Amino acid sequence: MSGFVHDIWYFAGIKSDLPASGLKRVIIAGEPICLGRREDGTYFAIRDICPHRAAPFSAGCLKGGTVECPYHGWRFDTDDGRCTDIPALTADSIVEPDRIRVRTFPIAQTGHILWVWFSSDKRFQGEPPFPPPAFPLTETKPIIDDGVKLNCHVDHAVIGLMDPAHGPYVHKQWWWRSEASIHEKAKAFEPRERGFAMAAHSPSSNSAAYKLLGGKPVTEITFQLPGIRTEHITVGDKTVLSFTAVTPEDEGHTRIRQLFFSDHGLFRLLSPVLARGAKAFLRQDADMVDLQAQGLRFDPNLMLIEDADTQAKWYHQLKLAWAKAQESGEPFVNPVKARTLRWRS
């Protein structure tokens, strides 16, 4: 699969996605993965294909620390992917089950968020070289949880997510923005770990939804590979965290999951209304992706302009720098330099 970031943590879901002793199928960067929660509450991630006849483990069940295939009952250890039992074998069979392996993936938890390590080496079994990202407030259950599947490559989804100029056209609502409210903006950006940030600032005057929080909101928006965008809004001593994960399934499909965490009482009170707005935003983006696909199928040359598309350029530069670092074994050097970007929106 081309264009996917490797040797990095991918968002896999949240704790409530998995019932106790339950299984869930996700697809990340072309790999079907069975996520599971053992009886002791710990998590595991194993390739969701039985090597016998390709049935998905996620349609099976957990038994004593193993996952059982629903087709013929083959069982595999959830730690190392080793086959522990093949019920059809007779006592004199020469087949050695423990020589059969299924790929497993390191999995980690930060608060309510689950992460899977996606290595370029399919035999990787060790500890990842760095921990998954952690964010404030994620120890609490998300107040808003929404998601959508986009019919596009992850690059188009990420670039659409960080595009600062489409709002008045794709997301025009009376409570957000319109063409009549467009004005020039200048925002300071700076490099961050595996990405960059729009430094803390007061929201734009034509972003009316922020006013619902009262006081004088300050927001900081960050992006980091492989596709995590966060917006950290503070109002006095209260905080709202908007967490968005853009995760590729395959070359033509991408999932976006948006979660909101907050200790702000008014945000919690207004969350049913705010959830409808967030849901509308994601569906508007999905509709635009489908329109965009009508042009992309003809493989046109695309343009990126300064300064409105500089974040898109940084994204491509970050991916390239990350891939080179993993290939060479040299430390990753962030290509983003601090600067102020100006555009009209």
Rg, nearest Å: 22 Å
Q: How much is the average pLDDT?
A: 90
Helix content: 10-25%
List the secondary-structure elements in sequence, H or E. EEEEEEEEEEEHHEEEEEEHHE
Unreliably modeled segments: none
Strand content: 25-35%
**Structure classification:** alpha+beta
Biggest sheet: strands, sense, closure? 8 strands, antiparallel
Morphology: globular
Distance between the termini: 35 Å
Strand order, main sheet: write it out.
Answer: 11-17-16-15-14-13-12-18
The beta-strand count equals: 18
Question: Your description of this structure?
Answer:
The chain is of the alpha+beta class. It has four helices and 18 strands. The strands form four sheets. The chain has an eight-stranded antiparallel beta sheet with strand order 11-17-16-15-14-13-12-18, covered by helices on one side. A four-stranded antiparallel beta sheet has the order 5-6-7-8, with no helix packed on it. α1 (154-162) packs across α4. The longest helix is centred in the C-terminal third of the chain and has 32 residues, at 265-296. It is globular. The model has no long low-confidence stretch (mean pLDDT 90).
Q: What would the keywords be for this entry?
A:
345 residues, alpha+beta, eight-stranded antiparallel sheet, 2Fe-2S
